[in-house]
Specification:
311 residues; mainly alpha; 16 helices; 58% helix
């Protein structure tokens, strides 16, 4: 799609618009992870030597599940996280497992035998994930998506998490709702029942969603190519008056999501055009490209925005 094809050819001499639009590949923003709730369930094995060496970030022996969660959160490398699991994993409760995955997701993927090192953690998680709550589930699938864990050996865990989420999604909190949709879209997981269930439950939670969560939810449905017109309309209504709270990446990704999904939202696009024009100097080149592509694709007139881009 070119700007000229939508009646804006007069701008072409002043900018490399075709090159700009060629850059318009959406970059999914990482959602805010939920803090892990610590419960009283789970105890450390009394046989574990209290003097055992532990990772440098968790030098003191953790004697309580809460201490172990703190140690996991402080781990700086994949090796430190997996060392904690290897030593104390038999005593991990659900909160500890969720914290383990959350930390791995934040640290990022290690190579080359990363997935092999996760085998025990994967199997242990699979045994208990059916009993997890929304915080743990959303942090788990976020980590699986971010770490690109999608091979055949990971299918049982993805499916178990999906089944558990389906049974609970009507009671998910706002952030967990958004994070779960983002994660399944990011991982390119086909989960039509789950996407339908989230689309039905999410509108009641939109007021409690952060700007990033609103943008991520729209991005998820556009990326998954899963129709959810009622949800997208509800997000548009909620987001339009709050765009001043959005960062520039959330603005460009929201515009991209609606254009990509082919969902007409004229009031939202009017508000996006005004906000983007005002804050254009703060956008990255990728963000400018996404905004330009979105408005051109949606065929939504925004002359002041394109004039600002041309300058």
């Amino acid at each position: 799609t070119t700007i000229a094809s939508h009646g804006l050819a007069s701008l072409a001499p002043r900018m490399h618009m075709r090159r700009l639009l060629s850059l318009a590949i959406p970059s999914p923003p990482a959602p805010r992870l939920l803090s892990t709730r610590v419960t009283r369930s789970g105890r450390f094995l009394s046989s574990v030597n209290a003097q055992a060496a532990s990772p440098s970030s968790a030098a003191s022996f953790p004697r309580h599940p809460k201490q172990l969660t703190v140690a996991l959160q402080r781990a700086r490398t994949t090796e430190e996280v997996l060392t904690l699991h290897a030593r104390y994993g038999r005593a991990f409760n659900q909160v500890n497992l969720a914290a383990c995955w959350s930390r791995l997701g934040r640290i990022g993927r290690a190579e080359p035998d990363f997935e092999e090192q996760l085998a025990e953690l994967r199997l242990q998680t699979l045994e208990s994930v059916g009993e997890w709550g929304d915080h743990g589930l959303s942090n788990l699938v976020h980590a699986l998506a971010k770490l690109r864990l999608s091979g055949a050996e990971w299918q049982p865990l993805w499916l178990a998490a999906e089944r558990t989420a389906l049974a609970q999604v009507s009671s998910f909190e706002a952030q967990a709702t958004s994070n779960t949709a983002w994660s399944y879209a990011k991982a390119r997981r086909r989960a039509p029942e789950l996407f339908d269930a989230i689309a039905a439950a999410a509108p009641a939670r939109l007021r409690a969603m952060s700007p990033q969560a609103l943008s991520n939810t729209a991005w998820a449905y556009a990326t998954a190519r899963h129709p959810a017109p009622a949800l997208l309309e509800a997000i548009a209504v909620e987001a339009a008056p709050r765009l001043g709270e959005f960062n520039t990446q959330a603005l460009s990704n929201t515009a991209w999501a609606y254009a990509s999904a082919g969902h007409a939202a004229p009031r939202l696009f009017d508000a996006l055009a005004a906000e983007a024009t005002r804050r254009l100097p703060d956008f990255s080149p990728q963000g400018v490209a996404n905004i330009a592509w979105a408005f051109a694709t949606a065929r939504h007139p925004a002359r002041p925005l394109f004039d600002a881009i041309a300058r």
